[in-house]
Design brief:
The structure holds 2 protein chains of 2 kinds. By secondary structure, chain A is mainly alpha-helical. Chain A has 10 helices and no strands. In chain B, strands 4-5-6-1-7-8 form a 6-stranded mixed beta sheet, with helices on both faces. A 5-stranded antiparallel beta sheet of chain B has the order 11-10-9-12-18. Chain B has a 5-stranded antiparallel beta sheet with strand order 13-17-14-15-16. Classes of the chains: A mainly alpha, B alpha+beta. The interface between A and B is medium-sized, with 21 and 27 residues.
């Protein structure tokens, strides 16, 4: 099942890149004047057809990256970035700016106040963003097939493998893969729910 | 507006919307303001909040909910000696491992004050610290605030309760529509003028003479007025202390009454009368000003006018101990 291994590895790496990056961009847009522009650009992959994003990446990426696992990671990262960004921005926005303000009167620089007060208070929303980005990476299809092709053992992720099996008429193999995706997604969602509940119990102690 | 540093506590009073909170947020650096803010001849206006060294406790306190009480206090600074002494002064030791979400209003205030003082501030700003505290606990929190006053950090104290201003501050600034409307000693500013709307009479009392067999304690106010308080309420309170009585709790007599259960009977002269919508507010010189609120009907029956001689009856239990 190298398909599953590759898919998980790609999704984890892509999420590890996207989570901090999208959070930083969301933080920068928090009190920026050019906020609308930042928001629009960061959300673009969410509203474009994935194949359009794939086409744009094809123009930008160098030849020796195309059709490798690295290209898959890049496609997944670009496509899942807006989900993490939107979630992080909503989480930061909904946190009370007064915590940030008070932290600064206590001597914290804006960076320290943000990272020690605003971010920890927004962790639930950030976690939701991470889960979304991770699941999006697992399911990415349109951009991946354009920049990485569908090479078994090298760039064929779950979503591509399912597509392949259906095309070849191997429905029972497709079903197996689909079941795996369902289990993986459910596990991620349930795990985050448990984590939130555990945290809440700790906080109310 | 000028605050004198010899006044340890400056009270900032005024109706809501008069600009009290805006003013102290500007001092703390959380609101951009035009104009100059200078402390110890250092101009603050150009400094970001983290470099101003102004301790600020907003009205809603804003403890960090994801940190324990201990970590909240240490957020203001890491000085262990200062931490220990503040925890001792404000009696925080039993609370240190709790989550701020489990604290009462008064406990939250104390934690927030300790946290602000950890930064070794040049000035401490308190925005209506008693507003979020339930009535029975206010007097206790006020006791802690008096301890903080004795730590020698100058304080600006925003309030709309006159008795708090009198109990804590030695200088009082009245804001109205964003401007300084009056300033002076809190008692003179708040009680001499019937239009200030003050409904409380506040006295600093000392020289207690306990008479437990009669159930009373005799005290003397800073103006030399002798008052009788219930012994059981003041038996274990430190003096001097602040007591207050509402203007609505005082009974007026046109002539000296005979046998009466009120332990305080004071003779005085009406010096100011102000009527609004059937409510009559009086200032009675006894000789220090005492405010009384009665109905139009009562004022008519007593035929009150400026200069009328009256007797004020105050039940000893109508006095509230501020601490």
């Amino acid at each position: 099942m190298s398909v599953v291994g590759l898919t998980l590895r790609v999704a984890v790496i892509s999420t590890l890149i996207v989570a901090p990056l999208a959070t930083i961009v969301a933080a920068l847009s928090w009190r920026a004047r050019s906020r609308t522009i930042i928001d629009a650009i960061a959300s673009l992959p969410l509203v474009l057809p994935p194949t359009a994003v794939g086409f744009l990446l094809l123009q930008v990426l160098s030849r020796n990256i195309l059709f490798t696992a690295a290209a898959v990671v890049i496609a997944c990262a670009v496509m899942s970035f807006p989900l993490m960004f939107v979630a992080a921005r909503a989480a930061i926005d909904s946190s009370d700016v007064r915590y940030f303000d008070v932290a600064r009167t206590l001597g914290a620089s804006p960076l320290r106040a943000f990272s020690t007060v605003t971010l920890p208070l927004a962790w639930r929303g950030l976690l939701a963003g991470v889960i979304l980005a991770f699941c999006r990476s697992i399911g990415e299809f349109g951009a991946t097939i354009i920049v990485a092709g569908n090479i078994p053992g090298r760039t064929q992720t779950l979503a591509l493998a399912i597509y392949d099996r259906i095309n070849m008429g191997h429905d029972s193999e497709a079903l197996l893969l689909v079941m795996f995706v369902v289990i993986a997604a459910l596990t991620a969602i349930v795990a985050s729910e448990l984590l939130i509940r555990h945290q809440r119990r700790r906080a109310s102690r | 507006m000028q605050c004198r540093s010899d006044a340890k506590v400056t009270a900032l009073v005024g109706p809501s919307g008069s600009g009290k909170t805006s003013l102290i947020e500007s001092i703390a650096g959380l609101r951009s303001a035009s104009g100059r803010i200078v402390i110890d001849s250092i101009s603050l206006a150009e400094l970001p909040p983290e470099r101003r060294r102004i301790g600020y406790v907003p009205q809603d306190v804003v403890l960090f909910p994801h940190l324990s009480v201990r970590d909240n206090i240490f957020y203001g600074g890491r000085d262990r000696g200062r931490f220990d002494s503040l925890c001792h002064t404000l009696e925080l030791v039993p609370l240190l491992d709790r989550s701020p979400t489990t604290l009462s209003g008064g406990e939250r205030q104390r934690v927030a004050i300790a946290r602000a003082l950890m930064t070794d501030p040049r000035l401490l700003l308190l925005d209506e610290p008693l507003a979020s505290v339930d009535q029975p606990l206010r007097e206790r929190v006020l006791m802690y605030l008096r301890r903080v006053r004795d730590l020698d950090v100058p304080m600006i104290y925003v309030t709309h309760q006159q008795f708090e201003a009198v109990a804590l501050s030695s200088w009082c600034i009245v804001l109205r529509d964003g401007r300084v409307a009056a300033e002076g000693r809190p008692r003179e500013i708040l009680f001499a003028d019937p239009s200030s709307g003050a409904l409380e009479n506040v006295f600093e009392v000392s020289n207690p003479r306990h008479e437990p067999e009669k159930g009373i304690t005799r005290v003397v106010t800073s103006d030399g007025l002798e008052l009788v308080l219930p012994h059981d309420r003041v038996a274990d309170v430190g003096f001097p202390m602040i007591v207050r009585i509402s203007a609505e709790e005082i009974v007026l007599f046109g002539e000296r009454p005979g046998a009466i259960s009120s332990r305080n009977l004071i003779e005085g002269t009406v010096t100011a009368i102000r009527e609004t919508d059937g409510i009559v507010d009086l200032v009675v010189a006894a000789p220090s000003p005492i405010r009384v609120r009665i109905t139009r009907s009562a004022a008519d029956e007593l035929e009150l006018a400026n200069g009328s001689r009256v007797w004020l009856a105050m039940r000893s239990r109508a006095f509230r101990i501020v601490g």
